[in-house]
Fold this sequence. Notes:
The complex is a heterodimer. Chain A is mainly α. Chain A has helices spanning 18-26, 32-44, 46-65, 75-86. Chain A is elongated and about 65 Å long. In chain B, helix 7 crosses helix 10 (165-189). Chain B has two domains: 12-88, RNA polymerase sigma factor, region 2, helix turn helix motif (Rna Polymerase Sigma Factor, Chain: A, Orthogonal Bundle); 96-189, Winged helix-like DNA-binding domain superfamily/Winged helix DNA-binding domain (Arc Repressor Mutant, subunit A), CATH 1.10.10.10.
Amino acid sequence: MTPPNNPFIQADGKKPTCMEMLQVIIDGEATNEQQEYFKNHMDRCLPCFKSYDLDMAIKRLLKTKCCGSDAPTDLVEQIKMQISQNTPS
Amino acid sequence: MEETITRNNYSEKEKNDIFNGEFLPHINSMYNFGFRLTLDRDDAKDLVQDTYLKAYRFIESFQKGTNAKAWLFRILKNSFINDYRKKTKEPSKVDYQEVETYYNSEDVNRQITPDLRVESLKDMIGDEISNALNSLDVDFRTVIILCDLEGFKYEEMAKILDIPIGTVRSRLHRARNLLKEKLSEYAKSMGYKNTEL
Lengths: 89, 197
């Protein structure tokens, strides 16, 4: 049974693919209505169910593993020094 | 996309308050972005320094209290394209028209990504994900950095990259498939077999 109104359908009337809906959900861009719709959809769609877990796991892994490059400690001082040299007093 | 730029006549104190209070708190994210773009720590440092100097020079076109992080990321991205990328003489490897035409074709419904399972990601505790991200072409890498590392919304990404939201979505979709292909290669090399549920 398909709910009559798919809230992912855009103004142009084009029906979204599973991957398009999933992306909106994963990226936190979905409205409450879209989230509710997708939750029901996922119960009936095995590819979406599998992809959701995988995509969320990759997103979490990216966040925890690729954000650790802190700026060198002297960078802020260097920037401030350059600004003060370039600013007429 | 025409934007009206409002000039704000800030006093020196206001300028410094904005710079210290709204710009500098993003230094680590900016450096990480610079590093992920250039893949070199010295180049990243130069790029970030150059970005902050430009931000200070053009501070009057920044509206106090608005999205400073997106504004700074946009300057850094433009500096990278205009200054750094030209120096590297590296030709662009991707024909975006081709990519985006592909995305909009019927083929997109085909599952491009090879089998990759959540279980295999659990063993990627080293640099695998970082190396996979770094191996992507810089424009695909950029959308993943902005979305997944920095948490920008599609609308903010569109402004930072000067592209329509539809292109943000399609580029992100393609970038993630390429990333999954890389991760799948790592998973295979770690001994995981492709197994259908």
